[in-house]
Amino acid sequence: MEEIKKEEEKSLNFIEEIVEEDLRSGKNKNILTRFPPEPNGYLHIGHAKSICLNFGLAKKYGGKTNLRFDDTNPVTEETEYVDSIKEDVRWLGFEWANEFYASDYFDQLYEFAVTLMKKNLAYVDDSKSEEIAAQKGTPTEPGKRNKYAERSIEENLQLFTDMRAGKYADGEKVLRAKVDMTAANMQLRDPIIYRIKHAHHHRTGDKWCIYPMYDFAHGQSDSIENITHSICTLEFVTHRPLYDWFIEHLEIFPSKQYEFARLNMTFTVMSKRKLLQLVNEKFVSSWDDPRMPTISAYRRRGYTPESIRKFADKIGVQKRENLIDLSLLEFCIREHLNKIAHRKMVVFDPLKVVITNYTDENEIVVSENNPEDEEKTTREIPFSRELYIEKEDFMENPAKKFFRLAPGQKVRLKSAYIIQCEEVIKNADGSIAEVRCIYLPESKSGADTSGLKVQGTLHWVSVKHAITAELRLYDRLFKVQDPSNEEGDFKEYINPDSLQIISTVYAEPSLKNAKFDERYQFLRKGYFCLDKDSSEEKMVFNRTVSLKDTWAKELKK
Ligand code: ATP
Ligand code: MG
Considering the entire predicted model, what is its pTM? Predict the structure, then answer.
């Protein structure tokens, strides 16, 4: 009860406060947000935060969200990325009201530029980029306008037409907004709003050889779509005055920009540029390599949309940069998988156990699919005279408090019987070949009349019924908490042991029917899901997350 109350009373984040005030005061009748990815890479968990925020706000306040591809840079954008972005947003559980492209507005943006020129608020500048940079001044020194700022309206209009017509080479001319070269805010010092780039665009083809800059495309696109709350990350705080300046002077729909802190997470890099390097330089196999922080990688690794939404909700919306502990994301997925994962017994490193007094060869034991599930469904598992248990669950000379199998010691086999170790059989080289045990027929789980209490319960599989699979165990991709803030290249901090493959494990036969959309807990081992590399011949499972946070202990050391 206490818990539920807390959830309901959870205080509003600062953006929700703004939205509630705007709705209450009548400033906005409805809210319209947008998620504006640049299609130059796959979305990462930072984008997931932005998606949950933008779509979540609209959902909460009965508004809508547009998906807008910010495709103003013709060189880096690809259709493959557009498709993956749509898949990822849908997978997270959100549906957009409209799918738009900034490139759809190129004609309109061109007209906006003309409007500014006609108001004598934009001019064509022939300076080289170094000259433009030098004339800009410094944060403590005002910038200076050059002679091109004196051009007449007619001349500017003609030159801009010529730029569009392809008369000039890349970099020969730019269009700048005439704002204020002495402004304390450097963004306002006559920013470039159009550049020449003779490049093929993935949607507009070769129609354009001039492209609007981010600042001239983004806010105007918001305005064209009547976006009420344009939410972006903190690095755009200093762009806000310019955002408002364009809207004011173009006299268009007054969208408003609000900024929040981007998500940074420990042991992770979060920029598409860096992620692209990891893929191109083959540190990982692909964008959806399960060690990557991309949404597609989390999906492949067995994360659920619910767990990622929960994570986004837990971290909230801040105004200051911070570093979120990766363990929090892992906590969210563990919590969800504990509720939904089917339990299975899988032996990673087998030791043969022979039950010498066992003769029934057709016995089936029954085990719960998930003790957390109210429906209490069960599965059948064949039991037999020869079983595998984990090597590490047996010690010939047991350490103190080793409550698993050892000579003379008793353990329970999960959902089956209590066994007692009688004899250890060795190979010629002294290694253990098998362990011989006896079982107690009256100790069967669910019908135990033995009166015995044993401390350890082991998972097991029947040797002759076991099926095999390959496992891929993942660890953090980086060895350090904040690889982007270390000396040298971030790639020097890659964890060389981030992938461990176990080529053959032995699983209870019910795992044969594993499905891609199902999640599994391999008892005592971790949470797993079927990987897309699985084939008819070989099943491959990814470890989504371990059962416990082993790093928490490491960090405390
Ligand atoms: P990157 O630096 O990783 O390439 P980006 O900001 O260039 O990211 P965009 O495609 O331009 O990526 O971003 C789309 C939206 O997602 C923007 O509104 C951006 O602010 C937001 N976003 C990007 N990274 C994060 C992050 N780490 N945390 C929260 N929001 C983010
Ligand atoms: Mg960007």
Answer: 0.93
